[in-house]
């Protein structure tokens, strides 16, 4: 038996519960959607990998500074030479035992001159940045070193056919704003002690080094995604060892002869080499699932990690701007990783000239495609 209301008396109906339309509810819903977009599993994994690379760079910076300040040892080429030797002993030897097109001799016969150029770019990028500290200021190095990011994006556009969206340019601007905040914190904390002997020469060296870093990173992304990580590391280890060894004998033989070796200095050299080895070994893995540009944005925090360790090791003064700088850089990095880039078809391709999803931020793209695959299956 159904209950009915009398014709003359309409019983008021209680409103059915629905989604909250209050301003607080709208903001809460928006916040949940933004959080779900920015902090997915793959983005968090990318952030963690990027910060692991930053810690490796931080280790190289701390060991180098400790050698320079405590033991008066300034031999960046010797330190790089030891790192390249480790790559040679591990990855180049592995290539020697491969068969077919992955064999060391086969690669050398077909592409030896390309890897010589890559080795020169990689070795000289490391050397020029370190050498620039003798001529210019810390502020100039930190700011001008960011010049490599727009160079890297331009090279990726023309060589890798990467196509960026507006959010990517905004993200890069946010990261550079964070770097500017860090430089301001350095000045306020009194870390800008060195005025430089020739600022113009130092600034030119930084720009050249940053540009060579961009060339090396674009080549690394191409080789890792098109060929193999092992081939890149093996060839860099081979030619990096040869080039840095020759340059070592030319520019640093007097500095090496003047080192008063003991176990502490040797331990610092070993620590530097291990940090560089880990950096070279892990960076291709991160680049393969993201891109060279996103990796370079992520490692902008390396200087901040060095500053935090320097509070205890070198007596640096703390500034709240360091925390703000770290937060701004991480915000830009997360924004960049939140939206995948696209890859355009090469002009000479027989395919129609349309853009398609590329392999940059691969994990994010797979995650975005899951709902579409599920709906098609249904």
Automatic annotation (TrEMBL):
Bilayer-spanning residue ranges: 47-68, 80-100, 141-160, 167-188, 200-220, 232-251, 263-283, 295-314, 320-337
SUPFAM superfamilies: Multidrug resistance efflux transporter EmrE
Region (Disordered): 1-24
InterPro entries per record: EmrE-like, SLC35_F1/F2/F6, SLC35F_Transporter
Any one Gene Ontology cellular component term annotated for this protein: membrane
GO molecular function, one term: transmembrane transporter activity
Topology class, membrane: Multi-pass membrane protein
Broad class of where this protein is predominantly found: membrane
Keywords attached to this entry: Membrane, Transmembrane, Transmembrane helix, Transport
Subcellular location: Membrane
One Pfam entry name: SLC35F
Function of the molecule: Putative solute transporter.
Family (UniProt): Belongs to the SLC35F solute transporter family.
PANTHER family, per database record: DUF914-RELATED, SOLUTE CARRIER FAMILY 35 MEMBER F2
Protein name as it appears in the record: Solute carrier family 35 member F2 isoform X2
């Amino acid at each position: 038996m159904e209950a009915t209301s009398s014709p003359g008396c309409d019983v008021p109906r209680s409103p059915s519960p629905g989604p909250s339309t209050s301003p607080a509810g709208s903001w809460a819903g928006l916040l949940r959607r933004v959080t779900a977009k920015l902090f997915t599993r793959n983005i968090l994994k990318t952030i963690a990998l990027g910060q692991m690379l930053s810690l490796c760079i931080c280790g190289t910076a701390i060991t180098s500074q400790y050698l320079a300040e405590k033991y008066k040892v300034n031999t960046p080429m010797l330190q790089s030479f030891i790192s390249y030797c480790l790559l040679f002993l591990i990855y180049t030897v592995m290539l020697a035992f491969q068969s077919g097109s992955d064999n060391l001799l086969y690669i050398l016969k077909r592409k030896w001159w390309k890897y010589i150029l890559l080795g020169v770019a990689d070795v000289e990028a490391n050397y020029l940045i370190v050498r620039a500290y003798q001529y210019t200021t810390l502020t100039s190095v930190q700011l001008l070193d960011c010049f490599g990011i727009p160079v890297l994006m331009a090279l990726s556009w023309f060589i890798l056919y990467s196509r960026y969206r507006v959010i990517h340019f905004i993200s890069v601007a946010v990261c550079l704003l964070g770097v500017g905040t860090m430089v301001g914190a350095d000045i306020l904390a009194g870390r800008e002690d060195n005025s430089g002997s020739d600022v113009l020469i130092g600034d030119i060296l930084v720009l050249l080094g940053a540009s060579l870093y961009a060339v090396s990173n674009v080549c690394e992304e191409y080789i890792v995604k098109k060929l193999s990580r092992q081939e890149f590391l093996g060839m860099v280890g081979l030619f990096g060892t040869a080039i840095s060894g020759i340059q070592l004998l030319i520019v640093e033989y007097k500095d090496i002869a003047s080192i008063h070796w003991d176990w502490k200095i040797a331990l610092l050299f070993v620590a530097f080499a291990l940090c560089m080895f880990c950096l070279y070994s892990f960076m291709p893995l991160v680049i393969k699932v993201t891109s060279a540009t996103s990796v370079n944005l992520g490692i902008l925090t390396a200087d901040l990690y060095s500053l935090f360790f320097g509070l205890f090791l070198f007596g640096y003064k703390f500034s709240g701007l360091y925390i703000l700088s770290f937060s701004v850089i991480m915000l830009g990095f997360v924004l960049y990783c939140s939206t995948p880039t696209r890859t355009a078809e090469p002009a000479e391709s027989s395919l129609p000239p349309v853009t398609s999803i590329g392999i940059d931020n691969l994990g994010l793209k797979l995650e975005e495609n899951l709902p579409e695959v599920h709906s098609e299956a249904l």
